[in-house]
Amino acid sequence: MSEKIRVKTPIVEMDGDEMTRIMWQMVKDKLLLPYLDMETEYYDLGLKNRDETDDQVTIDSARAIMKYKVGVKCATITPNADRVEEYGLKKQWDSPNGTIRGMLDGTVFRAPILVKNIKPAVANWKKPIHIGRHAYGDIYKNQEIKVTGPGIGELVFTPSGGGEPIRKVIHEFTVPGIIQGIHNTEPSIRSFARACFTYAYDQKIDCWFGTKDTVSKTYDAEFRNIFQEEFDANWKDKFEAAGIEYFFTLIDDAVARVMKSEGGMLWACKNYDGDVMSDMLASANGSLAMMTSVLVSPQGYFEYEAAHGTVQKHYYKHLAGEKTSTNSMALIFAWTGCLKKRAELDGTPEVGEFARKIEDAALETVESGIMTGDLMLVADPDSNNRRVYTEEFIDCIRQNLEKKL
Ligand code: NAP
Ligand code: MG
After folding, report:
1. Which CATH number fits domain 1-110+291-405: 3.30.70.60, 3.40.718.10, 1.10.600.10, 3.40.50.450?
2. CA–centroid distance, residue 293 to ligand 2 (Å)
3. Cα–Cα distances in Å, from 112 out to 190, 201, 266, 271?
4. Model-level pTM greater than 0.70?
5. Which protein residue has the closest C-alpha to ligand 1 atom 47?
6. E strand or H helix that includes residue 153
7. pLDDT digits (tens, 9 = 90+) for 209-266
8. How far is the CA of 215 from the centre of ligand 1 (A)?
9. How far, in Å, CA of 202 to CA of 191, rounded?
10. Is 11 helix (H, G, I), strand (E, B) or coil?
């Protein structure tokens, strides 16, 4: 191929840390830059630069996504006490993902990357099950009391503008026990609903949602009502035209139906359900490196990333001069997801077509038995299977890509 494919609008690129930073560069050098005439708005979210800029770089990168609408992010370290020491940090900076999610008011959607030689644990799952997890409130922002003996546990709401407080008795204790208070907010639930409908419509897949509104007649019912209102007001016609549907059912019924389904839907989950179900889904599909992850905001901003972290242990091996067998699939799909979205917004189908060729080349590589160590553990056994190193894997993908150009 002689001429490079032009990407019309700059891509917001957020570099990251450790092993994923190493792979990020390889993916760019080997799979993207030789073929694409592409400008990026580059933000270095590596921990050192976040520290040097007092985390301003993270804020700037989120603003750039608001401007250009599409970004791609490498995995980044969320510093804990060990990292403060390791990097000599000024302070324990917040999680960049949390900061960006907060600024974009977004929801994270995840879906497995399916290949023929890695069977999901549930045999009838033929298409990816996408999960959208509400990432605000409920038990993650709770207050709890350990009750030591007899007494009354109460729920009280005191209006700021004056007026009588509302009180409800949770339980009159005669013995020791526990109580808990949780909350959510109307705007957060509404944003979540909008992000879910935006994602399902973008992917042209049905949207399923489940709560326990038969038991939680106010709290869970509010989730159900807001979803329905939002759907009726803004999405019903679009969904009908696209031939997709919104389906609400009780959460336990949703779980039962998902297990029996062939997949291919977005499963919108309340915070706790999403926490639990996304881990189930990841393990049922073999590896976190075989998952796509995208942050979608209700305003239509998209940030693509890998679902896994910076693969710290592999990075230390790499630093010690050892070869690693680290899987770059999720990073590659973050880039292709971003390019496909850019192509759609720019009206440049040739960019989207090229991104799909990279994806096909990557899938074919794994399906031909060439894979990294994490996949050897979960792929169908075959005498042709070959474990390759990090860079070799990307080189093999490039060879397959070359055949398509
Ligand atoms: P991790 O980076 O996801 O890695 C955990 C383990 O999973 C690895 O040790 C490796 O197992 C396996 N693994 C993950 N990705 C892999 C890949 N691409 N190829 C092969 N194996 C892979 O999680 P962590 O070690 O707990 O966290 C490391 C750092 O990442 C932390 O500083 C955390 O803050 C950060 N983090 C960032 C994000 C994000 O930015 N999106 C998300 C999560 C964590 P083996 O060692 O058994 O091979
Ligand atoms: Mg979890």
Report:
1. 3.40.718.10
2. 15
3. 26, 18, 12, 19
4. yes
5. 374
6. strand 151-157
7. 999 999 999 999 999 999 999 999 999 999 999 999 999 999 999 999 999 999 999 9
8. 38
9. 16
10. strand
